[in-house]
Amino acid sequence: MHLKNNILSVDYKGINIKNPIVIASGPAGNGEELSQTIDLSRIGMFTSKTVTMNRTDGNPPPRIVDVYGGIINSIGLQNPGFQSFMTETLPFLENLRIPVIVSLASNYAEELETMVKALDTRNIKFLEINFSCPNVDKGREPIGTDPNKIFHTVKKLKKLTKKNILIKFAPADAILELVQAAISAGAEGVVLSNCPKGMKIDINTMKPILKREFGGFAGPAIKPITLNQVYQVRKQFKDIMIIGTGGVINHEDALEYIMAGANLVGIGFGVMLDPFIPIQIIEQLEQWFKLRNLNYSSVFCKAQSL
Ligand SMILES: Cc1cc2nc3c(=O)[nH]c(=O)nc-3n(C[C@H](O)[C@H](O)[C@H](O)COP(=O)(O)O)c2cc1C
């Protein structure tokens, strides 16, 4: 990774990323609404809501439960399906004037292959394979928990595309093994992390509030977990792209991720809390580096060589 002189800019294989702040997949949808509130061209990169081959209606309500330090969501990858995404949504993302990541999910390698192939000629820079959504269960073991399946699936996908491939994992004890499988199959990097599973019980009904019992836990309370995943992975994998995601709501959170070795920092829940958070973080990061006569590059490089 080569870095430009600008305080915050990142140059990845010739892709100019204005700053290390990435809108994470999901909470901001596909950016149509967010773009009416903030200027998305100021963000480093934007990640699409995860797309699946077929239309997915998602899980029954309630879909969001408030808990200390965040929310538990049970959205269930609701989306109109790949064909609709290609015609209705992708042109908007291609015109954002910032690099875009398209997030894809399926428990079937063949579906991922079809989608990856179809996206190869489009104006997007990264494909993110979401191997870790806690909210779907098609009666099949997810690909993303089995190193062997990860390796073979990523290997096939790499043959079909010139795009950079990132694999998104949820926090796992065996994270190093999972990342090893993805990287040795040719993935450029990883997104760490998706939501860990969490639950809340209604003490009046004495039952879990969410119909599927658990959901994906997001927000500041998960940061110590996801930050540790980034740090542990960076210690083992010096050159891969890492997008550190989990609980970022201010520039200090973002700095912690960069200091743990993340190239870029994803924001999910933070956008739901306040859509201006990404812009505020970019401005505060700039200030923080300027005041100390530092830049993103020097701090990141130090962390990379931990
Ligand atoms: C409401 C909601 C929807 C999400 N949808 C997706 C999704 O479609 N695909 C995905 O990869 N991650 C999804 N995520 C996970 C986020 O991208 C992110 O990895 C996670 O929430 C941790 O970061 P945060 O604490 O900044 O939210 C979703 C998270 C939330 C809260």
Topology, element by element:
Blueprint: E1 10-12, E2 15-17, E3 21-23, E4 45-47, E5 64-67, E6 70-73, H1 82-94, E7 100-104, H2 109-119, E8 126-130, H3 147-160, E9 164-169, H4 175-184, E10 189-192, E11 197-198, E12 201-202, E13 207-208, E14 215-218, H5 223-236, E15 241-245, H6 251-260, E16 264-267, H7 269-273, H8 277-291, H9 296-304
Parallel strand pairs: 3-4, 3-16, 4-7, 7-8, 8-9, 9-10, 10-15, 15-16
Antiparallel strand pairs: 1-2, 5-6, 6-14, 11-14, 12-13
Bound molecules: flavin mononucleotide (FMN).
Flavin mononucleotide binds at residues 24-27, 49-50, 71, 73, 75, 77, 103, 130, 168, 194-195, 216, 218-219, 222, 245-248, 267-270.
Written description of the protein model:
With 306 residues, this protein is α/β, with parallel strands linked by helices. It has a single domain (10-57, 80-197, 221-304), classed as Aldolase class I (TIM Barrel, Alpha-Beta Barrel). It is 33% helix and 19% strand. It has nine helices and 16 strands. It has helices spanning 82-94, 109-119, 147-160, 175-184, 223-236, 251-260, 269-273, 277-291, 296-304, and strands spanning 10-12, 15-17, 21-23, 45-47, 64-67, 70-73, 100-104, 126-130, 164-169, 189-192, 197-198, 201-202, 207-208, 215-218, 241-245, 264-267. An eight-stranded parallel β-barrel has the order 3-4-7-8-9-10-15-16, surrounded by five helices. A four-stranded antiparallel beta sheet has the order 5-6-14-11, with no helix packed on it. Strand 9, helix 4 and strand 10 (189-192) form a beta-alpha-beta unit. Helix 2 (109-119) packs parallel to helix 3, helix 5 runs parallel beside helix 6 (251-260) and helix 6 crosses helix 8 (277-291). The radius of gyration is 18 Å and the shape is globular. The two termini are 16 Å apart. The mean pLDDT is 94. Bound molecules: flavin mononucleotide. Flavin mononucleotide (FMN) binds next to strand 6, strand 14 and helix 7.
